[in-house]
Q: What sequence folds into this?
């Protein structure tokens, strides 16, 4: 290779066969052309065939592929730094040795950087084989995005294009002592220092692979290693960005992801001392960085877990996690315009966590509102020619539910496909439901019980069709429409109603989705049926005779 390459691709390699082959093929096949490309692959003491595979590619493409072999360092940071020391491209790009690129990835990202004079370009990433990759940043191409008001903090992997002049100007390198997350300090500082950050969203540049044995380093690190790494990254970030909304925007990612993942479903089964160390570590970080603004920006589930860990309320935290895993999100306490999720520790003076932590702040109600909305009993109530459907429904809302707009309605037709899901449907602002028809009586839940019971009597109209039985409730400034679940409860027998000369039949049933539906159909009395059949027969005979005469 005579002229300096446009881009140097850095590949840190440790035991990634057979994925490594696809990775390297995707690099040498880039549309940018091998003459504009430099690949620096560092074998970090692999014990499988990875080293030999690298040498094979170097032999096939000697002007493009450079291979460095070294003893194992314990992580990708040291080999990445070694590659940076010998890189010569105008830009440098990092790829995991078990991942691969789209054919036009480098060409598109280099063009984007040149067109926009960008120091960092983020190409669209997707996950494969079940690998999760945050997608919010890739809604559209962007010439200039900020670390502080975009989804970029949730995309902090080093799998980006960096202008090498900037990397060397600030001597950006990876901390080699971090077993996991070593790319974040590099990426965060690069984004802080960059004059401009651009996004290529209209082409899938990067395919992140989850190995079949889930042996990616991110999945192998233990709890304390991940805690120590998160703490160091957060402290490093605080040293770069002054306190305020900008720092909160970046650290929100670490509270939402890195720290929240330490208090997930496996936490209740951990050793008590390990639980204490996790809570103490999270508490230290929360004491320093968990501002009111950051707290309110998080969803209530994660917010509560962080606060309980901060209070070292181990038993309450374990109960909150295990209960939600088994039963879903807890009921809600409604007090006027405010609503609170009743997780363990709510208003417990021993713990002292503020109500604001438990409050629903501008977020949708979690799925328990729908899952806990079930039919307790139902029947028909008939007075002369009139018929009403009566039902008692359990709704997981507690407190001042009289002011929560709680009502049961019969709604004709199915829910829109976009909303036809197991959870509650949050109605758009400005919706119009009309007045409540019938009588509603609320039996508020007392302390220790699971939910409020709504008793309703809804008169039926003489019309045909299927009517969905749905509950409507106002929670935290939003109105929710919730299909009522039948849960295998026997339905009342079909009932005939209406005038003798124009009767209807009403039946209640549970549809294939487990939802309660009232079906009304028009009936005809025997005399009318006989007359209609006789007239029909006579018409058929007359038509038959007319045909024979012809």
A:
């Amino acid at each position: 290779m005579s002229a300096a390459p446009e881009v140097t691709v850095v590949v840190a390699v440790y035991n990634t066969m057979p994925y490594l082959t696809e990775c390297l093929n995707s690099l040498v096949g880039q549309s940018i052309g091998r003459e504009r490309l430099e690949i620096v692959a560092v074998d970090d003491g692999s014990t499988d065939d990875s080293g030999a595979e690298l040498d094979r590619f170097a032999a096939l493409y000697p002007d493009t592929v450079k291979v460095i072999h070294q003893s194992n360092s314990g992580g990708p940071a040291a080999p990445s730094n070694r590659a940076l020391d010998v890189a010569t491209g105008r830009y440098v790009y990092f790829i995991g040795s078990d991942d691969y690129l789209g054919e036009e990835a480098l060409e598109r990202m280099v063009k984007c950087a040149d067109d926009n004079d960008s120091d960092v370009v983020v190409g669209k990433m997707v996950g494969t084989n079940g690998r999760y990759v945050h997608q919010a940043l890739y809604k559209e191409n962007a010439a200039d995005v900020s670390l502080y008001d975009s989804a970029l903090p949730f995309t902090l992997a080093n799998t980006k294009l960096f202008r090498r002049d900037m990397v060397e100007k600030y001597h950006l390198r990876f901390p080699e002592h971090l077993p996991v997350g070593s790319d974040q300090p590099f990426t965060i500082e690069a984004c802080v220092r960059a004059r401009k950050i651009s996004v290529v969203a209209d082409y899938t540049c990067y395919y992140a692979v989850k190995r079949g044995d889930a042996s990616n380093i991110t999945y192998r690190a233990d709890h304390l290693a991940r805690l120590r790494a998160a703490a160091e990254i957060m402290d490093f970030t605080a040293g770069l960005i002054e306190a305020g909304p900008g720092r909160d925007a970046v650290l929100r990612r670490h509270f939402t992801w890195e720290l929240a993942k330490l208090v997930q479903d496996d936490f209740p089964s951990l050793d008590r001392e390990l639980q204490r160390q996790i809570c103490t570590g999270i508490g230290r970080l929360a004491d320093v960085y968990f501002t009111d603004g950051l707290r309110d920006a998080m969803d209530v589930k994660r917010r509560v877990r962080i606060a309980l860990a901060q209070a070292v309320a181990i038993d309450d935290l374990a109960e909150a996690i295990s209960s939600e895993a088994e039963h879903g999100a807890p009921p809600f306490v409604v007090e006027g315009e405010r609503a609170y999720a009743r997780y363990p520790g709510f208003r417990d003076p021993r713990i002292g966590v503020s109500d604001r932590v438990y409050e629903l702040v501008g977020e949708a109600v979690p799925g328990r509102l729908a899952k806990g909305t079930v039919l307790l009993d139902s029947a028909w109530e008939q007075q002369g020619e009139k018929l009403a459907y009566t039902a008692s429904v359990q709704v997981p809302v507690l407190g001042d539910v009289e002011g929560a707009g709680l009502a049961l309605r019969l709604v004709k037709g199915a829910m829109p496909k976009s909303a036809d899901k197991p959870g509650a449907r949050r109605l758009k602002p400005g919706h119009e439901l009309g007045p409540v028809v019938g009588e509603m009586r609320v039996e508020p839940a007392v302390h220790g019980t699971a939910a409020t019971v709504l008793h309703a009597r809804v008169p039926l109209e003489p019309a045909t069709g299927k009517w969905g039985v749905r509950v409507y409730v106002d929670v935290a400034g939003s109105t929710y429409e919730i299909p009522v679940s039948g849960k295998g409860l026997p339905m009342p027998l079909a009932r005939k109603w209406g005038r003798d000369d124009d009767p209807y039949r009403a039946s209640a049933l549970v549809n294939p989705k487990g939802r309660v539906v009232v079906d009304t159909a028009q009936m005809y009395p025997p005399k009318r049926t006989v007359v209609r059949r006789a007239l029909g027969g006579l018409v058929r005979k007359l038509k038959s005779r007319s045909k024979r005469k012809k």
User: Anything to note?
Assistant: The first helix runs from residue 19 to 28. The longest strand covers residues 197-209.
